[in-house]
Amino acid sequence: MQKVLLKNAKLVLENKLINGSILIFENKIEKIFTDNDNLSEFTFDEVIDLEGKYLGPAFIDVHTHGADGADAMDGSEEALRKISAYLVKEGTANFLATTLTSTKEILKDVLKVVANLQDKDIEGANIFGVHMEGPYFAIEYKGAQNDKYMKPAGIKELEEYLSVKDGLVKLFSISPHNQENLEAIKFLADRGVVVSVGHSGASYEAVMKAVDYGLSHATHTYNGMKGFTHREPGVVGAVFNSDNIMAEIIFDKIHVHPEAVRTLIRVKGIDKVVCVTDSMSATGLAEGQYKLGELDVNVKDGQARLTSNNALAGSVLRMDMAFKNLIELGYSITDAFKMTSTNAAKEFKLNTGIVKEGKDADLVILDKDYKVCMTMVKGKIKFTNL
């Protein structure tokens, strides 16, 4: 294995910024050097001068359906590889292939395809598992999900999904509006799956009860859920008030007003917010007509909307843009990395998300304008325009 030195960087550590260099060996961050260390004592196989650029933990996207014309629901390795190759260009090193509400047969087929590529060294970003978004949702909050497949949860069906491959399903979005779904939440949480409230009109009390059953995440907070009012705090109120819930946010300035993003971060705290893209196949492509699963979508002016009712249908957001939007909202670069990488890594127990010795070398290099210059996945350069 080669010893690679990334030198002369602004290193974004968990709570501070330092000038230094890092040594990569055997897919890990072997050593962090400050500018005071004497590098002449060491030998390296390759030295890359970053010329003062930022070096931080590569982004993690736990909610992405697709990009570059490909969708996880295409059910092919080719589609997943295409998504992987695109996401790495935006600084993402790890992602969850996200499904849509569909038939049991189609969902199982998609799971089997993802299982073949999970944690494999492929073209770009690593697929560390699956986020199952549906089918146990509330029809009145269906958003861009196909309501003809929505139904109450069933333990037998869940067993079939989980039996495709142990540890494949990492995140499961569900609406806790009935007892069957509450039992499903407990079943999933007991098996190590992170369970998320999404596409739900459940009451505040129902969501808080679901937390007792093991719910610990919120799918695209504010979107596809009962909002907050002073007489019915709703799903959003439960997300605000429960310290057990990690809150996703789509920060594209379309799904959520920037000041509502600030409100979420202020209420939850920096460590309880995870930026996601909810990106669809049109991401990275021209405006026009696309598909989200079986549904027709029109992409115009940076917005993806269903042609049937004009509802938002995922996004064409990139993680690097979400990161920049956080910076523009006034958050520090260390806090921006927490919400785009560190928090998700901790939630899903990944050995990454922090620039620290012993962590996987999943790294992103950004210039002074926060443009992605290089992405490293497990110590391998998967994208560069240095």
From TrEMBL:
Indicate the enzyme's highest-level EC class.
hydrolase
For this chain, one GO molecular function annotation is:
N-acetylglucosamine-6-phosphate deacetylase activity
List residues binding substrate.
144, 223-224, 231, 255, 312-314
One matching Pfam family:
Amidohydro_1
GO terms of biological process kind? N-acetylglucosamine catabolic process
Q: Which residues form the active site?
A: 278 (proton donor/acceptor)
Cofactor(s), names only, from the UniProt record: a divalent metal cation
Please give the InterPro entries that the UniProt record associates with this protein: Amidohydro-rel, GlcNAc_6-P_deAcase, Metal-dep_hydrolase_composite, Metal_Hydrolase
Domain Amidohydrolase-related: from-to ranges:
57-381
Q: Which SUPFAM superfamilies match?
A: Composite domain of metallo-dependent hydrolases, Metallo-dependent hydrolases
The record's comment on cofactor binding reads:
Binds 1 divalent metal cation per subunit.
Keywords, alphabetical? Carbohydrate metabolism, Hydrolase, Metal-binding
EC assignment: the record states: 3.5.1.25
Q: Where does Zn(2+) bind?
A: 133, 199, 220
Instruction: Enumerate the PANTHER family for this protein.
Output: N-ACETYLGLUCOSAMINE-6-PHOSPHATE DEACETYLASE
* Family affiliation: Belongs to the metallo-dependent hydrolases superfamily. NagA family.
Protein name (Swiss-Prot/TrEMBL): N-acetylglucosamine-6-phosphate deacetylase
The gene coding this protein: nagA
